[in-house]
Design brief:
298 residues; mainly alpha; Cytochrome Bc1 Complex, Chain D, domain 2; two-stranded antiparallel sheet; 12 helices
């Protein structure tokens, strides 16, 4: 399939590339037929001392253009450069990447297979495996969860014992393999007063300062408007659907009344990408052990 969205862009690239090469050829032809008078100036003077002489292009410079033109023709015949033309060799950056990945996998796969045969908890106790897991983490995970794995706003801390979907090896591996989609629906339709009551109630669950009168109203609203359907009647959340525990002191987006109000009004959406196809079973297994080890103090 073409990389271009229409034939116009294919033609556009061909014209630009071919035009550039022909411009070099034209320059060489013009220079070869031009008449020069040694010692004669062109009448252009700069700073009363610097003059432009009517001299031919230096030979070494001309040869650079010749080499450029020859190289361009050879390159465009072998490699893609003229729009949709793929070149005689059929080279693509995707194909090269695939070949390099296969070579690396052939080298490291036996090592990962060794750990694949072990229980995750046993792998988490293996020093070499944890070094490998750390390298995987720093390559693919730190962009969201941080170099120290303590997370950031909207990205969970992986070093504590608080888990949205569960912290057992099987649950961590499922998260890495399939990814997660966290959704908190917006509830702005409840009105500013009810939202404020709910925010105060949620803060009171974690022992944070709150308006007791509004918190009491918020408790009633929590069950009445359906919050308990996801977070449970006790507000401790449900790992089966990834709803957070509202009674602890762990906050994914922040614990201030303003942030909680923002969450209730606008909702939240957060996605953990799936890594199964990209990393493969062996690397997922070692990475699972590393993440599991982080929460166990290893």
């Amino acid at each position: 399939m073409s990389d271009f969205i229409s034939d116009f862009w294919n033609l556009y690239v061909i014209v630009i590339v071919a035009g550039s090469i022909l411009a070099c050829v034209a320059l060489l032809i013009i220079q070869s037929k031009a008449t020069f008078t040694p010692g004669k100036t062109m009448g252009h003077v700069w700073d009363e001392t610097l003059e432009e002489y009517n001299n031919p292009m230096p030979q070494w410079w001309s040869w650079l253009f010749v080499i450029t033109v020859v190289f361009a023709f050879v390159y465009l015949a072998l490699y893609p450069g003229l729009g949709n033309f793929k070149g005689v060799l059929g080279w693509t950056s995707v194909g090269q990447h695939k070949d390099e990945v296969e070579k690396v996998d052939a080298t490291v796969k036996p090592l990962f297979n060794k750990y694949l045969a072990m229980d995750v908890k046993a792998v988490a106790s293996d020093k070499q495996a944890m070094e490998m897991g750390k390298n995987l983490y720093l390559t693919y995970c730190m962009q969201c969860h941080g170099a120290d794995a303590r997370g950031a706003k909207g990205f969970p801390n992986l070093t504590d014992s608080d888990w949205l979907y569960g912290g057992e090896p099987e649950q961590i591996k499922l998260t890495l393999n399939e990814g997660r989609m966290g959704v908190m629906p917006p509830h702005a339709q409840l009105g500013a007063d009810t939202v404020k009551d709910l925010a105060n109630y949620v803060r009171s669950l974690s022992g944070l300062p709150s308006d007791s009168v509004r918190a009491a109203k918020g408790k009633e609203a929590f069950a009445a408007v359906g919050c308990s359907g996801c977070h449970g009647l006790d507000a401790k959340g449900m790992q089966a659907i990834g709803s957070p525990n509202l009674t602890d002191k762990v906050w994914l987006y922040g614990s201030s009344e303003a942030v909680i109000t923002e969450t209730i009004n606008g909702g939240r959406q957060n996605k953990m990408p799936a890594w199964k196809e990209f990393l493969g079973e062996g690397k997922i297994h070692v990475l699972t052990a590393y993440v599991y080890g982080l929460s166990q103090g290893k």
